[in-house]
Amino acid sequence: MSDLALEVNALHFAYTPVNAPKGPPVLEDVTLNLPKGSRCILVGANGAGKSTLLQILAGKKLTRSGAKVLGQDVFFSTPQGVTYLGTEWAANPVVRSDLVVSHFLDSVGGYRHQERRDRLLDILDVDLNWHMHEVSDGERRRVQIVSGLMAPWEVLLLDEVTVDLDVLVRSRLLAFLTEETQTRNATILYATHIFDGLDSFPTHLCHIQLGTTLPPSPLSWPVVFPSSDPSATVEGVPAGVREKMEDPERPGSKLLELALAWLAQDKERRIEKEIAVGGTKKRGAAKKAEGETTDSEAFYKKYDYNN
């Protein structure tokens, strides 16, 4: 049996609209092979394809690229023990209705996992008497995490679900997830844009840029630089980042420094691609000749009664 929890090699994915040709690739040549027991942070800009990759690995989108989770095809033979938690849950009208938390958790089998459920209720500081329509987004998110994690899982796919949590609850949750990987050999792939307090969490990082993973994928964390050559770097770490990561006078997160460098590279590459295709960058302020105006601007100026 393979020691890999996730096996993704040269994965391609594009949306195919009804009665229309296949669209441009959302993911292209994605590679990510993660050993069991690992905790991998998925790093990339908005729109890089992180959520799409997580949904594919959860069996929610069809791809014929042969991606496997726990040795099985992610779509045609989705294995047991895979849990996906994404942001779309909070928009479900059911979980925003006048539903008592204790009733909701029982409806999804909480009584079958009482010990784990109760531990998570304590970690996430959830009141069983809350009514789902009365609580904050952060409190509703805590309920989602309890409901998703109370049954034992082998692979956990997290898409930005900690963004609503306060720092104390987030810290306690990350400690619980670390324990799960260490004691049960479970595996986590976690997409986030919040890197503070994460330096000691991951065992690996994966950089996804414009729909493609960049080598090495994954990158082992923490990064170990060659001590014999202070100027040497490691594959996947941009030039100049080693100095910042090893500078004892520089406060803050080493993981954040690397993520910032990666995201800066991603933006440069995106702009290069936009210019190559259309002759100009697409985002940011539009450059106009002196006196030039758009149709919409001319229309709204005509009826602007504030002037």
From TrEMBL:
Pfam families: ABC_tran
Domain ABC transporter: 6-235
Keyword ATP-binding: yes
Keywords: ATP-binding, Hydrolase, Nucleotide-binding
A Gene Ontology molecular function term of the record: ATP binding
Keyword Hydrolase: yes
Name recorded for this polypeptide: p-loop containing nucleoside triphosphate hydrolase protein
